[in-house]
Amino acid sequence: MGHTPHQSGSGSTNLIVTVPEYRDQGDLHQRQHTQCSHHVFCLMVRVSDIPESQIEFSAIRASGPGGQNVNKVSTAIHLRFDVKASSLPETVKSKLLELRDTRINTDGVIVIKAQKFRSQEKNKLESLKRLDELLQKSQYTDKPRRKTHPSRSAVRKRLDSKKKQGSIKKNRGKVDDY
User: Fold this and answer.
1) Residue 18 has what pLDDT?
2) Mind listing the domains of the chain with CATH numbers?
3) pTM for this predicted structure
């Protein structure tokens, strides 16, 4: 990750952070702010925040069609990331482990297999992208639900329709002619 100071026209110095090419496919990485509670914003943990030493890559042979290439070249990537032994904040770790995802095994290791592309580098990018999506999914929190009450007119309409439906059902059945 490179940090370069950048002079803007107003005389202030801005810091531009560039991320290695395999992170976010060459784009400048921007940290995403999410709304954690009503007015508090927190920083979302992304793949680029995880040290490379904690993510393990292994090249394997891809399955499926591909001719001789698929038999000779190991282009598929297995990404392994141990959540429990990682440097992630404890809250993120617990949220990740609570996810009901088949890619997270009982030991707390995320295993992602990427074999979409014919090149190892593209599959590596794809696996990192999927890990990033999993991290974002675990940190997303729904807005708290506010309890609401139906209006008086809505209650009255509902009860009227129930009475009408009840009378329709009551009129069904055998007719007694004396």
Assistant:
1) 36
2) 47-139 (3.30.160.20)
3) 0.59
